[in-house]
Structures are given as C-alpha cells and as structure tokens.
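[scheduler] slot 2 assigned
[scheduler] job type: sequence-to-structure, two independent chains
[scheduler] chain ordering preserved from manifest
[runner] begin chain α
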Amino acid sequence: MTTRPVRFGIWALVHGSRAAYQDPDEPYDASWERNRDLVLAAERLGYDSTLIAQHTINPHQEDLDQLEAWSAAAALAALTSRIEIIAAIKPYLYHPVVLAKLALGIENISRGRFAINLVNAWNKPELDKAGIGFAEHDARYAYGREWITVVSRLMQGERLTYKGEHFDVRDYALRPTSFYRSRPLIYVGGESEPARALVADHGDVWFINGQPLDDVAGLIADVASRSRTSSPLRFGLSAFVVARETQAEAQTAYERLLELSRKDAPIKAIQKQNTDPKVVMMQTMQKSARVGSNGGTAAGLVGSYDEVAARIRAFHAAGIELFMLQFQPFETEMERFASEVIPRVRASAVVAADDAPVRSGVR
C-alpha cells in the first residue's frame, strides 16, 4: 500500500474523444483551444495532473486532427500554476540531447511541474512513413533504454560523455538545469518484460493500463520486487470513469457509450492493422468489451459515486497513487467526478487517518 495521498489526473484530448468519435454529446475536437480550456478547468476543479499523449499523426484515422504534445505542454506550463504536466515521448522522434533540452525548458517554465512519459511506440505508420523505420518490439525497448540513460543524466546537469550502440555524446552539458529539483520526473508506460525492466531501472512512476484490481496488484508486486538504486517506484493507473447517482444509471450510460463506440469499428480496424501485435496493451484490451483507451473501463470505475470511490480506494490500497482518468463527454463528466467522487475518496482517507492507531504519541 502506498502511503502517498491519492492524486487524480486527466488525459488531454489531443486526438479527440477517448471513447466514441460519433457521440452527439461530444463532437470531435482536438484543437489547442479545447485542450487549453480543458486543462485550465481541470486545475480549477482540483485535478493534480494531465497527460499529453504524443502522436505526430492521428493514430486512429490520419485525416483527423492531432494536437502536438510538446508545444502544447510548453504553452500549458506557462498558463497553469499548480497542475503537473506530463508529456509523452517516443524516443525515435527526438535525439536525446534535444529532448533533454526541451524537457528542462518546460520544467523551468512550469516551475518544477513537468514530467516526461516514456513510451516505446505501437503505431507503425507514424515512424515508417517518416522514413525512421519501426524496429522490432524488444529492439525498440533497447533503444529506449539507451535513450533515457542519456536524457536522464543530461536533465540532472551531468557533463556527459556516453558511447553506446545508438548514441555517441561527447562532453555535453545542458544549462540551465532545473531550478526546482534534481530533474523532471520520468513516467514509463508498457507492461511487457522489457518495459518492466526499463521502469525498474530508470523510471520514477510506472503507468499501468486499466485492468481489474487483482491483475494490477500482480503487476505492482512484480515490478516493486525488483532491485533499484533510486527511490521506491511509484504507480499510476489509466482508467475511464462512468459514475452516476446509482449503479443502474451508470450502467445505462456505459452501455450507451459502448454502443456508440461500435460505430467506430472501421477506425478500430485501421488501428489494429497499424499496431505491433507484440504490444501488451493491445493484447490486454482484447480480453473484454470496454470503452476508452489504455484499458478504459476495464479498471471497473463504472458504478454509483460510492462504488467508484470504493474501487479507487481499493486500487490505492494496492499501491496506485495517481489515477489518470478519461470521461465522455469529457468536460461535463470531469466536473461531475470532481464534485461527487473526489470528495468521497478524500473523506474516506481522512477517516482512515483518524482511525489509525497512536504510537509514541504520534498518529
């Protein structure tokens, strides 16, 4: 169980709706203006973090709009004051020296609220059509491991000389480093064995895709047991939320989204064709019907306000600190969650603390 308080984040809508593209209550909109307003609203509502996924072209249908992650992250860093900004990065798209410099810039614009989310790519055309090439699964992770080694050391202010299979960096130092801490945090996504080894060695937080509690607990136990030379690893979970006053109302809303998502079958077929079949996330998502990306509703956050709060508490007890959430229609449901579910989770945490035994006069 983590002793850290629960944190809540939102997925930015960089390629539109997270569940169904043909929802009349949420017309397609991946614009900068919408994402700006969404993140500013999330900050006002008390959310702690936002995740900006990185794609150069829309991963579902290439003629749809796609917001660029890193320019958006820099702009959001300047406009916000409290919320953590996490920008995803695919190593093949940026040389590590350039990326480390970008990350340090946004770190200082945000005054120490920036993080990177290392993902090793699943969308083949994004790299193939650029002439970069889409390496085999384990080779991508080997590249990512060398890449993050360079990035991490440069972000910490080290004057680096490094020679590996992919990079030859000589007597390189970046200034300024972070004015606020040793370096930006490193989140890592992926659940394959190479991904688990990578996060144990180089990550600060492991992002787990939405799935049932027992499966998440098993993943946490596996990676938490691995040796580390830095501070203990922290854990985050992606999940799609459908919360209502009653379980029946939530189920009706979920079934509506599930039916709408079936209209996106042609888009999903394109996504499947473009995806590396070795990506564990995609394998996991085939196990059951769900809505949302990155596991979506498989985490079970569908139900009454009390039920959803209780499930969040159970995941927290298993070790999840940060819940990176999706909704639809996003703005409306994000506000509902903030007003109805977050207070229930926070109140239960206060009760648990008050009920804790007193030892040596300290609670």
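[runner] end chain α
[runner] begin chain β
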Amino acid sequence: MSSEHMRALVLEDYGAPFVYRVIDRPRPDFGEVLIRVKASGVNPLDAKIKAGEAEHAKQPLPAILGIDMAGIVVEVGEGVTSYAPGDKVYGMTGGVAGLQGSLAEYVAVDAELIARKPANLTMREAAAIPFGFVTAWEGLVDKAKIEEGQKVLIHGGSGGIGQMAIQIARAFGADVYATDTDDKQAIIEWFGATHIDADTVSVSDYVNKYTRGAGFDIVFDTVGGATLDASFEAVKQYNGHVISSLGWGSHSLAPLSSKAATYSGVFTLLPMLTGMGREHHGAILREATRMAEAGQILPLLDPRHFHLQTADQALTLIVRRGETGNIVVEI
C-alpha cells in the first residue's frame, strides 16, 4: 500500500456490516491537522448512526464512522500554529455531518476540535474520553454552573457520559448520586458516587432518603424517555436544574414549571454539524487533559481489544449493552 492510501471501514448501507477498504488518504485543509489514528472510542451514538437510527447526526452514506479518537499529528494544514508533527492529541473528529470519522488509519480534523492527549493516559484511555467528557462538561459546568456542596443526581452513571459526569461533579466538590441497574453498582461506587437502583426504588423514596424531600440541585439525564420525566420529579424547587443529553421525546413540562426549576438540553454534535463553536470543544478538552493529569478523571475501559477487522463486534456489544466499560477500537 502506498503512502497516499490508507485502510478504513466504510459504511455503505445502514444496518449492514462495515466494508474494509483501501482508500485515498485525506490531506489537511486550511485549519486542519492530519492525524495517524491510534485508537477510536466507540459510543452508543456510533451504533445508532450505523443502524440508521440517528437522523440528527446528519451522516450521509457512504461514510467512515467514529466520533472519538486519539492519535499522532503527522501533518498540519495552512493556518495551524498550535500543533506540529509528532504531537499526541485526542478529540471528536467527525463521523457525523459528512465529516470523516476515526475508524480509519488517518483522519484530517479541524484543529479547533482537538487538544493534547493527557500525558499519563494511554491512547486507548484518551480515545474513550472526548464525547462523554464534553457532553458532561457542557451540562454540568456550562449550563448548570455546578458548585461545591450541591447534591447532583446522574441518571445512567455507568455510561460514557455518566462516568465523566460523576468525576467532574466530584472534582467540583459536589455530593454525587447515580442511578443505574443493580449490576452496575460496583462501577458507580468505584467512581465515587452513591448508587441508586431506579428499577426498584421510587423517585420519591430516593429523593426523601438522600435530600430529605428537597430534591437534587442538579439532575443530569443521560438516558432519556421516562427517565427525563423522573428527572423533573427529582429536581429541587426554584434553583434546581435538569440537564438532558437525550431530550428528544415529548414531555410534559408541568412538573418542572410547578417547581420553577430550569431545564437545559445538551447537543454535543452541534459544533460539528454547524461549524460554529468548535473552539469551545477544544477548550473543554484542555480541561479534560488538566483533570486527567491531576488524577481527577479516568475512563473505565472494557478489557476486550478490538481492531478495524473486528469493529463490527465492538458496535454489536454496545447495542446489546454487553460492555463492562468504554469500548475502544485500536487502529
């Protein structure tokens, strides 16, 4: 294979397996860097895009999927001064909006979307951070203005967003609780949150037990559907704040309005879809690097190793919810 080509996984039909191909290697345009991808983080959204169930991602076919990546800069485009060949970086690269994703040997990425990889993390670990961390930061910090001492409830605490939300909230000095299934209790507690099994404990019961009936200062919903409705019930009056990264359904705002509480939606893909606000993604990831190097965040990885040829298996695990941590494909 010549230096002008690369190996990549191409999705030609929604719901079909990836096709392993040798294709032209991209060149970095103005403001972009060319990255040799070392690891591609797999998110539930990647699986939904592959299945044709994520119209909001606006990804036409054929496409190379993969939102998250970690790798090494090999070439910089005109106008880029913040990176040089050899820099180890990570971030959200594409896989949406017609942008090439990370399930390939190389990707040309807008330099504003990325940051330097935490020095103390492996490529696999770094690739598991971007989407989850950016979503959690935008919700907790940008929207809800999290403060020390607040009681924070995170729905779906063992997921990629939930893991990062727990760790960010704890780093800010919050008292953190997280719902998830009973088999995820050990993961929740490993990250330092109090586990709540929402399948067996009612909202009113855990609100009474952990907040003496007052409600949580911040409720972060990463699950959607009925869980968002439960969030409206669990939040505190007046200055309580509900955040959701999956607020796509139809919901009654009456429970929230009657409390004079606040709701914010988080749509992490927006900068990649619109081209606006990409610099903020890079700034958030610089915070992630700072926190990782300070020992405040660490992704929990599924111990299984996947490569381009077995990436379909990785996404199937996500669909079946058979993962025991973040899944990463090594390139």
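[runner] end chain β
[qc] chain β: The first helix runs from residue 44 to 51.
[scheduler] slot 2 released
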